[in-house]
Amino acid sequence: MALSLVVRTCRFSFCRFAPSKALTSYRSYGNNTPARDAHRKSVYKTEEAKRIRFYILNRFIEYLKNYDKILEKNFPTTIKTYRTFTDGIKTFSLETIEYFKIVMMLNSSGGSYAKLLRREIELYHQMPKDMMKVAPVIIFSALPFAFYVLLPLVYTLPKQLLTAHFWTPDQQNKFQIEYFRDRLVHNKPVFRHLQSQLNYIKHYGKNKTQFEKWANILGLLGSGIQPTAEDILACKDLFMDEPYHLLYLSRNHVFHLLRVHNLHAGWFRRTRLADRAQVLIEMDKAILREGGVHNLPLNALSKACYIRGLNPTDISSDYQVKWLTQWIKVSSQVDKDNLSLLLHCPILLGYNEPSNWVLVYPKK
């Protein structure tokens, strides 16, 4: 009986652990027959599967191509701001490179303003101020993740932190008018300083005839009429000596004259005013070299008037040409001895202009 129990136990163990023929044959069939390969081919190699994969891939590529449009649709203000900033960076970088090329040319042997175009002289005049203003923003935006923090901040205060390169067209028009209004409010103090010296010219002036002509010019300005270029040039000798030469102007007179020309009131005031007058003369010469005022494009014509003290908004191009022609008549007769005359031309030629007056005294 014990022997019978041992035999049954061995049979049970053998049946439990020995592989069956059916399992062996199934595995053998799975490894050796082409049916499994055919199944795999049907999943991965058929034309239908290829078309599905290509369709998914093409849809993904199209999605990536249109991703900026999707963002613009969902976040229009953010995307517009980002594009304005990146375009501004490109424009600012190109103009900075051009500015340093101009500086190198002017400092080289034989370099002079006569070799520059009008646009290049305007760039040379404006870029130092723009670089000083926007340099902190450019530097901080290059830091890791700082761009995403800085961008909302700078576009909260675009007038204070950015230059025209980074403004939208609407902002450019708005801020230009605001900056120009800030300049125009200094016209009246400069005019009062000119008037205050009339008594000195009467008693100590070398030419009584010039006194009468100058008194007439100040009278015209005070009564709302602009004198002509010929009237102004008849009194240019008054700006070659006391009381209107740069060296003889009072401190307050110099301060307001700086602000009229959008210059800061810091160091080397009279030197910077003289440099400003020289640059204006060179701009005018470049205009004449390029065919005269009548050949200026409309944007360049408006910018030229803006630089010299005339608000070009809502006035015709013909009037801008007429006004700028008067300016250049005076400018062409100015030299290093009477630079002060040209610096006062924004008042002498623009004090009573209606487009300027409406900015200083807007209708309520």
Walk me through this protein's architecture.
The chain crosses the membrane at residues 134-155. It is found in: Mitochondrion inner membrane. It is a single-pass membrane protein. One of its GO terms (molecular function) is ribosome binding. Keywords: Membrane, Mitochondrion, Mitochondrion inner membrane, Transmembrane, Transmembrane helix. The chain is an all-alpha fold. The protein has 2 domains: 47-165, no CATH class; 169-360, no CATH class. It is 71% helix and 0% strand. The chain contains 21 helices and no strands. The protein has helices at 2-17, 21-32, 35-44, 47-65, 67-74, 76-107, 118-141, 146-154, 158-161, 169-184, 187-196, 198-204, 208-222, 229-233, 251-260, 269-289, 298-308, 317-331, 339-343, 345-348, 354-360. The radius of gyration is 39 Å and the shape is elongated. The model is unreliable at 1-33 (pLDDT under 50).
How does the overall form come out from the CA principal axes?
A: elongated
How much strand content do the residues show?
under 5%
Question: Helical content, roughly?
Answer: over 70%
Query: How does the helix and strand content classify structurally?
Result: mainly alpha
Tell me the total number of β-strands.
0
Give the CA-CA distance, first to last residue: 126 Å
Mean pLDDT level: 83
Q: In this structure, how is the largest beta sheet organized?
A: none
Number of helices: 21
The figure for the number of domains is 2
Order of helices and strands: HHHHHHHHHHHHHHHHHHHHH
Membrane topology: Single-pass membrane protein
Keywords: Membrane, Mitochondrion, Mitochondrion inner membrane, Transmembrane, Transmembrane helix
Subcellular location: Mitochondrion inner membrane
InterPro entries: LETM1-like_RBD (IPR033122), LETM1/MDM38-like (IPR044202)
